[in-house]
Amino acid sequence: MLQGKRILLIIGGGIAAYKSLELIRLIRRDGGAVTPVLTKSAEQFVTPLSASALAGDKVFTHLFDLTDEAEMGHIELSRSADLVVVAPATADLMAKMAGGHANDLASTLLLATDTPVLVAPSMNVRMWLHPANQRNVSMLAQDGIRRVGPDEGDMACGEFGPGRMAEPTAILAAIQAMISDGPLSGRHVLVTSGPTHEPIDPVRYLANRSSGQQGNAIASALAALGARVTFITGPASAAAPLGVDVVPVQTAVEMLEAVKAAMPADAAVFAAAVADWRVTDAASGKIKKAAGSPPPSLSLAENPDILATVAQMETGRPRLVVGFAAETDDVIENATQKRTRKGCDWIVANDVSPETGIMGGQENAVTVIDETGAESWPRTSKEDVARKLAERIAAALG
Ligand code: C5P
Q1: Per-residue pLDDT tens for 85-118?
Q2: CATH assignment at residue 126
Q3: Catalytic one among 141, 156, 157, 301?
Q4: What residues line ligand 1, using a CB cutoff of 6 Å?
Q5: Tens digits of per-residue pLDDT, 63-74?
Q6: 123 alpha carbon – ligand 1 mean position (Å)
Q7: Phi, psi angle pair for 58, to nearest 5°
Q8: Quick check: is 344 catalytic?
């Protein structure tokens, strides 16, 4: 997938630097070439020799290396790659990037480059959550810098929380998604997926049986064709795919907000099984079961229809809006009406009667309905359905 692509890999000074050696190996195994750059503090964690041996290339460490300036200046070095990856991106490196500093080779390259940049942050949980760091993180996002991770988990410093660098396989997937030459490269596609959870009180909620598998497969298939995918998911049982920007949400209202925040997009696929209703005035404390008193009654309010809201946007509507229709009776007729009612371009309809085993299962049999009519696809795996749908989306966006 990365054949003919060159990655400039800036390794920052953090304990996760050892994982970046593995990343070099993975990029090369995928056909890509790596030029490593080590910051001064990175050299405390990994040696230039190991990075160079794995990359099979020269490693750059100092700004004022005259030979290199004669052979290839820092400007040239910063622009000769298809992608600049900063892994681990320490708090200090990200602060320098956000502030536009250029006082060593890594920061100078990052300021001089006009190549897309991906950061894989890695730091202690308190550092990650510190307002100064969070300010820098949002500044970098505004500057168009992409991010993978950090993950949540045990840290080398003995604490627990967000701050662990994303695994090398996840960084590789993010790299592939950014620079693979698919028909959707340069396109931004939104995908909603999974169920939503509508709280009754802090411990109870209304939900549905959506596993999120079809949404996952669609997001992966779109990313494999080169799209930048924003994947807005409710609490699904299936883990979110690699190589997409995951935005986790709980409720329908949060999902709509996340969808709006992720716009603009070239296309949007609404595969989420959004709860139709939410509990009005969910209790802030756990509702107690008191002996002799009747069960509480729930009052419900209708949730926003995210698909219809986006499909009917007057400005900024994605060019292609795709909805799903899970039906048990008169599938095509109901779905055709739904397409018109909601104002979307396509509806992917499927029969979720229990005897089909589709809901929660591995396979799907869908009919794609557009303005010209209905096209039924033979029953196949959810991955195949996703691939065909991603190809159809690529063809429609042209
Ligand atoms: O109306 P129904 O739930 O059958 O419509 C299904 C389609 O609408 C799906 O694409 C689903 O993701 C979307 N939807 C939505 N917001 C809702 C309800 C459904 O986006 N509140």
Answers
A1: 999 999 999 999 999 999 999 999 999 999 999 9
A2: 3.40.50.1950
A3: 157
A4: 192, 252, 270, 272, 274, 303, 305-307, 323-325
A5: 766 466 665 677
A6: 39
A7: -70, 145
A8: no
